[in-house]
Design brief:
Elements (H helix, E strand, L loop, with lengths): L2 E6 L5 E3 L4 E2 L7 E4 L5 E6 L25 H18 L11 E2 L7 E9 L2 E5 L19 H17 L5 E9 L2 E7 L6 H11 L4 E6 L2 E5 L4 E4 L2 E4 L10 H14 L5 E5 L7 H4 L4 E6 L2 H12 L7 E5 L9 H4 L4 E4 L7 H9 L4 E6 L2 H13 L3 E2 L3 E4 L8 E7 L1
Parallel strand pairs: 6-21, 10-11, 15-16, 15-18, 16-17, 18-19
Antiparallel strand pairs: 1-2, 1-4, 2-3, 4-5, 7-8, 7-9, 9-10, 11-12, 13-14, 19-22, 20-22, 21-22
Helix pairs in contact: 1-9, 8-9
Length: 401
């Protein structure tokens, strides 16, 4: 029997009148579902339902919310922040309007290829499956990355053996595309030669596998502030240049007036290097290649304040009170797990200002609770939507005592 959709769950699935979760439905829809609560038919569409812009929507696991009108979509993401904070006992926290990046701006993607029946599929995994959706279009990634992937596909079909899989990590640098391969194929010299032949045609300037450089026409570089950073193999980056700029703006406002800043989980120096134009920066990250790239860029850039960078596992060895005391402000941008150990040390310190950037509202709210319980006040929370049409969301907020 048809059933009404009355709301959206935290993952973006519609919630039925009797409390079930139904993917790809919209509040106000009248739908029929199968025994596994999968959408069978939209009997009467909600006025908030729109035609998805991608032909693969509903099959590809990359996007979950293209069927929502923009105001409903952004309201869902903003409400997600409110609900997550409320679960940790917060009320009255100001959450700004969601700032979404435009389509076709994702500059780093991981695509998967699988050869089966003599044909190679290349794309993202289907929702809840290891099956690859063979992409003919994509509205999130940079067109240059999609063109490169499409150009690689016939060659992958030659190289892959039957039922073999490979992951392709594509990064659009300022001067071309870096391709990192993840597979167990025993490479033959002829294959390397073929890679070299097609690299220029596809604007691939470097190919790597593990720590090995298969070919490098020139070093991939990205500019952060005034500094040009050479990218190591498979680096961490903010998903979109536009989102990175929004986050950096919030960070700069948050640390204004500070003389010395610690940038924790600094990566390649996405924030460290632009901040070093005005502040002394102490940078920390566990990845040795990214720390080395940051230091090299800082040393080769004129006009920066002093920058130090240290390889350090902040989960096991967080900055302690005496080290924190050297800083006027801290920028914290941890992985999805958050930074419980580091936040506990900050909460016990005398630090007056912290800018927290998070890609996971749940771990952000957990860490915010720790800080609030030790006297920190949360400023406005700024949601930045870099993961278009998904239930993922980036946040930035300033904590002050």
């Amino acid at each position: 029997m048809p059933i009404r959709i009355t709301g959206l769950g935290h993952a973006g699935d519609g919630i039925t009148e009797d409390g079930r979760f139904a993917p790809f439905t919209v509040p106000g829809d009248l739908v029929t579902l199968d025994a596994q609560d999968r959408l069978v038919e939209v009997v009467a569409a909600s006025p908030d339902r729109v035609e998805p812009p991608c032909p693969h929507f509903g099959h590809c696991g990359g996007c979950a919310l293209q069927h929502l009108k923009v105001p409903v979509y952004t309201a869902f993401k903003r409400d997600l922040v409110h609900r997550t904070l409320a679960q940790r006992g917060f009320s009255g926290i100001e959450v700004a309007e969601v700032h979404s990046v435009p389509p076709y701006t994702r500059r780093r993607v991981v695509l998967h290829a699988h050869k089966q029946g003599g044909q190679t599929r290349l794309g993202f995994h289907a929702r809840g499956s290891h099956t690859i959706v063979d992409l003919s279009a994509c509205v999130i990634m940079k067109p240059a990355l999609f063109s490169c992937a499409a150009g690689l596909k016939p060659y992958l079909n030659q190289w892959l053996r039957e039922n073999e899989r490979i992951a392709l990590h594509l990064t659009l640098a300022d001067n071309g595309i870096a391709l990192h391969l993840s597979w167990k194929h025993a490479r033959a010299p002829a294959m390397i030669a073929n890679l070299a032949k097609i690299a220029a045609y596809l604007d691939i300037i470097r190919m790597t596998e593990g720590d090995e450089i298969l070919l490098e026409r020139e070093a991939p570089q990205l500019r952060f502030g005034k500094a040009d950073v050479r990218l190591p193999a498979d680096p961490f980056l903010q998903p979109a240049r536009e989102g990175e700029a929004i986050l950096l703006s919030h960070i700069r406002n948050g640390v204004r007036g500070a003389k010395t800043i610690a940038d924790l989980f600094c990566g390649l120096g996405t924030f460290s290097l632009p901040l070093a134009e005005r502040h002394k920066v102490l940078a920390f990250d566990s990845d040795p290649a990214m720390v080395a790239a940051l230091l090299t860029a800082a040393r080769g850039t004129q006009g920066l304040k002093p920058v130090t960078a240290e390889r350090r596992d902040l989960f096991r060895r967080p900055l302690l009170g005496p080290e924190i005391a050297q800083c006027d402000a801290i920028v914290l941008d941890p992985p999805r797990a958050g930074a419980a150990a580091q936040v506990a040390q900050i909460a016990e310190s005398r630090l007056a200002r912290l800018v927290y950037v998070s890609c996971n509202p749940a771990s952000f709210a957990r860490d915010a609770r720790t800080l609030a319980d030790r006297g920190f006040r949360i400023g406005t929370v700024f949601p930045v939507d870099q993961f278009l049409w998904s239930a993922e969301l980036e946040l930035a907020a300033v904590f002050t005592r």
